[in-house]
Amino acid sequence: MEYVTLNNGSKMPMVGFGVYQLTDEKETERIVSQAIQAGYRSFDTSSAYFNEEAVGRALAASGVPREDFFITSKLWIQDASYEKAKAAYQASLVRLGLEYLDLYLIHQPFGDYYGAWRAMEELYKEKKVGAIGVSNFDDARLADLILNNQITPAVNQVETHPFFQQKTAIETMKKYNVQIESWGPFSQGSQNIFTNPLLTELAQTYQKTVGQIILRWHIQRSVVVIPKSTNYQRMQDNLAVFDFQLTASDMEKIAQLDLGHSEAIDYLQAGAAEMLNGLKIYD
Length: 283
What we know:
Layout: E1 3-5, E2 11-13, E3 17-18, H1 25-38, E4 42-44, H2 52-62, E5 70-75, H3 82-96, E6 103-106, H4 113-125, E7 132-135, H5 139-147, E8 155-159, H6 167-176, E9 179-183, H7 197-206, H8 210-220, E10 224-225, H9 232-239, H10 248-255, H11 270-277
Parallel strand pairs: 3-4, 4-5, 5-6, 6-7, 7-8, 8-9, 9-10
Antiparallel strand pairs: 1-2
């Protein structure tokens, strides 16, 4: 495994395991246990995924020392305020069965995320969390949060993949020393990514899977990835991406696949705010 060093000195694995849309408790516990067996030590969840308890049980049953894991969870919009954020953090710890998180993120750039960030800054200063960051923050929101608060987010987890490469966002994050992390590194299977002619050709050239080509492309762009798979062989494949390197020419070929926009959600549109604010994780 290779690691990135976050802006507070924490080490984060370049490849982790995402658990979005794993909602069946027994199935989630089984899949996370398999991922641990395959070699994953970084896991990404959220209070909004409704699977923190199952993830926690798999971690506890693994026998792997806590310090070997890098665990991320996220604060949902309903708890995005100073008063609620600390309680929400503690509730995630209880559900996960952990004493601390390695990384805690504001899940969406809506609600009183400024109040939530102040609470998270306090949690960090009190050494109750290893690092704090954000998710889905566009350039303007990210810069504004940084310029008006004490602690710069360690991570910004955003949608990025060959069809939405976030080139401008990456430059902004580099400017402020914020680590980019990709959710949906495989574009959630859209645009027939696994049968894309260019990516298929590169897979044949390097004798790798299309998934491995995509993950290697991310890594060479210094992007942390959290692919999800329920197939044990693909879990292993997704970790086996450190024994080859794409040429500059092939990196440029993949760069030409960029559509320049998301086909999943546009965070600059009112509809995104309305939809996400309407998703409640409790009554």
